[in-house]
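Please, structure for the following, as tokens.
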Amino acid sequence: MHYDLIIRHGLCLFPWGAEETDIGVLNGRIATLDARMTDTAEREIDARHLHVLPGMIDAHVHFRDPGDASIESMASGTRGAALGGITTIFDMPNTTPSITSAEAIADKAARVGASCLVDIGLYVGATRANTPDLAALERLPGVCAVKLFAGSSTGDLMIEDDDGIEAVMRSGHRRIAFHSEDEYRLQARRKLFETGQPYATHMLWRDEECAFLGTRRIVALARKTNRPAHILHVSTAEELDYLADHREIASCEVLVNHLTQVAPECYEALGGLAVMNPPIRDRRHYDASWAAIRDGRVDVVSSDHAPHALAAKTRPWPDCPAGLTGVQTLLPIMLDHVAQGRLSLGRLVDLMAAGPARIYGLQTKGRLAVGFDADFTLVDLRERRTIRNDWIASPVAWTPFDGLDVTGWPVATIVRGHVVMQDDEITSPPIGRLARFAP
């Protein structure tokens, strides 16, 4: 048999366990999990001493496109994704202009092939104006989900009241992704703080109850409407305990930052470079997040990559914008957590491949199986590196993890059989496509 690509001798992470085998790729799909030594290919990769994972997915990024390419674009963002071992990303709708209409989705989709190194899903933003159209918009090609900002947004991309949220939940049927901080509490508490207070004030303003109240409200509405909800960037012990009793209607995501950084130390060390929403919290919540990773309560781990210019991030609190770079560092940091024994490699695959595919309805991604897209992330679990600002592909050129030593590194990123990154080098022109989702 002659294939387009054969990956030989790698230890492959299958749903049923790890096995050393040779994978054959034809026409962008996995054609066999047992290629013979007599089989040939246009290209072969020797993955000896490497682990072959299903293509890693970052289900939560803000590439600012359309918007300001000096901050980020689909081209620079997917370059960072490829360098970091990510084969598919889902891009948020709070761009300039926002992605809230069929025309905006079509415009963005038209630029994917010329810009993107990896595959991409597009969130459509919920507004009061487009609520009646969401049932149709969520079914457009490439749309991964409706995103609803119940707090912490601007312009028309926020619906903070129960009636507005319920109306969105009654328009369509797919799982809705929520930013669930409670806007009313956020606005009331803002008056308690002054400009120039320590950066750690961020977690006092946006306290645990801001997040927990928002999540309780959304789950109640999910039950009322029988519409499944996906709670993004869950950051508190209270939310994680609560969501365990509502698994049939609500899934959840935890960010790598909440699994890696601890307050107040992160604010003392990084200042504005630690400011994100929801905020990084103290060790009680860090420990609770890891407990939820271990017992299966967390469905997805993502980066919430949201770059801002370094000059803006160094402004006094709260004038420094919230958001951090992360798509490129997500997998190296999670691999280091594997090396430190905090989770298994199989659980990492569940959180960053199978989990996103299950929650968002990706039909041919997220696992190594015949007929699935030939998306692979090859990793060296022994490789030791130091994350540095000069490695970051984003134009803002900084990471909150500058100087962090990690064990485990992506050595190849393969998208539908195309090798887009190998040994820290981009090896392909843009070949990204819109990801396919169940209707």
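The CA atoms of residues 289 and 295 lie 10 Å apart. The mean pLDDT is 97.
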